[in-house]
Amino acid sequence: MTLIAFELSGETPEIPTAEIVGVLESENIPFSFKCQLEQVFIIETPGIDAGLTDILASRLAMTRHIIEVSGVSPANLTDIISMAEKVDFSNLNSLTYIVRAKKIKRKSHISSEDIERGIGKVLYDRGYRADLVNPCIQYRAIVSDNTCIFGPVIASIDSSAFERRKPHNKPFFYPGVLMPKLAQALVNIARVKEGSVVLDPYCGTGGIMVEAGLIGASTLGCDVQRKVLIGAKINLDFYSVNYSLMFQDAGSMALRNNCVDCIVTDPPYGRSALIQARSLDTLMQDSLCEMYRVLRPKGRLVLVSERPVETWAQNAGFRMADLFTQRVHRSLTRRITVLDK
Ligand SMILES: C[S@@+](CC[C@H](N)C(=O)[O-])C[C@H]1O[C@@H](n2cnc3c(N)ncnc32)[C@H](O)[C@@H]1O
After folding, report:
1. CA distances from 39 to 83, 94, 98, 167, 233 (A)
2. With contact defined as beta carbons under 8 Å apart, do 288 and 252 qualify?
3. Secondary structure class of 10 (helix, strand, coil)
C-alpha cells in the first residue's frame, strides 16, 4: 500500500478534495481515505503508476503537488530529522535531489530553511548529491496542523494553462463566466472522464464545455441567446474540443431520456440574465426535471446557484450527494450542489 498526499491550493477547503475523489472514482483508481489536514489530503492506494499520475496531474485544478509519502512526524525539527533518518532513499541511486519545505499558512514556529537544511544533511551524509537548480527529484516536507508530511513529489500541477484560459483571454468573451479552474474542478466532481457525454443546458460561452472537452469528453450545450451560442462555437473551435450546440430552452430539451453521463451547469442567477418568459424559480424546477430525465441512471449533476435548489432537485428525483458554498463577494455566495440520479 502507498500513501499519497495531495498538497492543495488554499482557495476553498472542500472543493479541492471533492475533485480529487471525483477523478480517482472516474478513473477507477482504488483508494481509501487516510486523513485530511489543512490543505493536505492523504489517501492510501495499492499503487499509482506513471500513467495514472499523469492523468491526475493533467486533471486536478486545485492541487499543487502530489507526493508519495515516505515519512510522517510531529512538526518539530528533532522529530522531522529522526523521521528523515528512517526513510529509505535507496531509489535515489545516483539521481540528484532538492528538499523543499512548505508551511501551510505559516502557522508553525520552525523555519522552512531549517527543515530543508536538516533533511538535506541526512541525504548528504548518506552520499547523495543535491542539485538546487535542476534536480532529478524534489522532496517535499509539508507542515500542516502540527504534522510534517515528507516524500518525493511524483507530480506538480501546472496552473498556467488555467490562467491562459481565463475568460478575457478567450476569443469570445461575455460577462458572467466561471473561472476555468472552478469549471474544471466541477467537471472533476461530476466524474467526467475521457469519452463521457457531458451536458451543460445553460452553456453560455462554453466555459464548462471547454474544460470537459479538454479531458476528452463529448460535450453538448444549450442556450437561448443566439449571440452567446455563436461565441461558444468560436471558443469551442479554438480549443478543438468535441461539441454540439443547440439553441433551446433548458426547461424543455429535445434530447432523449438517459442520454448523457454527466451534467455540469451554471444557470442564470436571475439578475441581468435572460430567462425567457417565466420566473427563475419555474425555470429551475422545469430544467431540474429535464436534467433528471436526460441523465443516465447513476449519472451526476453538479449545479452552481445562488439560491438553494435541494428541494426542487429532490422533487425531480435527484439524491443529494454534496453541497459546497463559496463566498464570491459580499453579496454573492455560490452554492455548488452535487446531485446523483
Ligand atoms: C451564468 S450564464 C452561463 C455561463 C457559462 N457557464 C459560460 O461559460 O459562459 C447562464 C446562461 O444561461 C442562459 N439561459 C438563460 N435562460 C435560459 C434558458 N431558459 N435555457 C437555456 N439557457 C438559458 C443565458 O443565456 C446564459 O448564457
Report:
1. 21, 33, 22, 27, 37
2. no
3. coil
Distances (CA, A) of 98 to 85, 121, 123: 16, 11, 10
Record the cell numbers describing residue 186, joined without a space. Answer: 466541477
Kindly state if the Cβ of 274 falls inside 6 Å of ligand 1.
yes
The beta strands (E) that lie in 160-241 are given as 197-200, 218-223
For residue 55 the three cell numbers come to 492523468
Burial class (CB in 10 A: 0-12, 13-18, 19+), 165: buried
Q: Which of 224, 246, 278, 294 to mutate to test the pocket of ligand 1 (most atoms within 8 A of CB)?
A: 224
The amino acid that residue 230 corresponds to is I
Angle at 50 between CA 131 and CA 102, to 5 degrees: 45
- Nearest ligand 1 atom, CA 222: 21
Enumerate the β-bridge partners of residue 101.
Answer: 141
Q: How far is the CA of 63 from the centre of ligand 1 (A)?
A: 29
> From the centroid of its chain, how far is CA 47?
21
286: Cα within 13 Å, side-chain hemisphere? 14
Torsion angles phi and psi, residue 206, rounded to 5: 85, 20
Domains and their CATH numbers in the chain: 2-156 (3.30.2130.30), 162-340 (3.40.50.150)
Pick from 172, 229, 274 the residue to mutate for probing ligand 1's pocket: most ligand atoms within 8 Å of its CB. 274
Non-local CB neighbours of 227 within 8 Å, separated by 6+ positions: none
Residue whose CA lies nearest to ligand 1 atom number 25 = 225
Quick check: pTM over 0.85?
A: yes
Backbone φ/ψ region at 255: left (φ over 0), alpha (ψ -120 to 50), beta: beta
Q: For the segment 6-57, what is each residue's pLDDT rounded down to a tens digit?
A: 999 987 889 999 999 999 999 999 999 999 999 999 999 997 788 889 999 9
Interval 227-279: pLDDT, tens: 999 999 999 999 999 999 999 999 999 999 999 999 999 999 865 455 655 68
Q: Cell triple for residue 191?
A: 466524474
Side chain identity, residue 249: D
Tell me how far apart the alpha carbons of residues 286 and 250 are, in angstroms, rounded to a whole number.
Answer: 8
